[in-house]
Amino acid sequence: MAEWRLFRSWPSAELKTRLNALAEVERNFEGTTEQEMTGDAGWQHYHSEAVIASETEGEERFARARQALASYQFSDPDIVVAHFDPATPLLLRRILLEIKIWGLHYLCPALVTHVRDEGGTYGFRYDTLDGHIERGVEWFLLTRDDHGDIRFRIEARWQKGDFPNWWSRLGFMIVSGYYQRRWHREAHRRISLLAHYGSLKRPPRDAAGLTHQGVKVTFTYHTKRRFFQ
After folding, report:
1. Mean pLDDT, residues 188-205
2. Per-domain residue ranges of the chain
3. DSSP track, 86-135
């Protein structure tokens, strides 16, 4: 069951203790593969994606996007903060995701189970662990095509997990869609800035030197969303 607090986070020493304890924590959907997480089986499946940058020479933007992805800098800290030990390898890294909604802070564990690093593709998948308010998997992938376009894709298959109380579960059903889309849009915007400049302070400019705020994000549900499940 997820640990929660109101209007405050956890001190670093407490987070360190909780991260160390994750070595004994198992996934909260054992026995189910990603391929079995279908709509007919009661799983939600969606993805968002956007072209976040383009490069025709060199690999600076793709390299910066890789770094931002591996360090979870693309996440809006007003909604989700990832706590982890950066000295640990990305594969099998254990993460505490601090999810923030309406002043509530939920501490949700996850484990990086897959890493892809092959030519123009880089990314990872994490699986939820016992104590997460959701159960399932989520992929974060960067790809670069032959034209130099760099695309960022977030894809998840999930069900609701174990909430600490009934009103948390009800609140999640009411507001999760709004926060989900907001987080996705901001993730694409942030990684676009980081790919262009390695910083969130300067918006990207086109060949004419102009700034065009935001990136075009597509958000697709592969299974019908059900309010009550």
Report:
1. 87
2. 3-221
3. TTS-STT-EEEEEEEETTEEEEEEEEEEEEEEETTEEEEEEEEBTT-SEE
Cα dihedral angle (31, 122, 70, 54), rounded to 10 degrees?
-140
* Structural domain 3-221, CATH architecture: 2-Layer Sandwich (3.30)
Backbone angles phi, psi at 204, to 5 degrees: -65, 150
Can you tell me the mean pLDDT for 158-175?
A: 88
Rounded to an integer, what distance in angstroms lies between the CA atom of residue 129 and that of residue 204? Answer: 37
Express each pLDDT in 82-135 by its tens digit.
999 999 999 999 999 999 998 999 999 999 999 999 989 999 999 999 999 999
What is d(CA 48, CA 4) in angstroms, rounded to the nearest whole number? 28
What pLDDT sits at residue 229?
A: 39
Q: What stretches of the chain show up as alpha helix (H) in DSSP? A: 12-21, 60-70, 166-197
Higher-pLDDT residue of 67 and 196 is 67
Backbone torsion region of residue 103, taken as left when φ is above 0, otherwise alpha when ψ lies between -120 and 50, otherwise beta: left
Amino acid present at 35 = Q
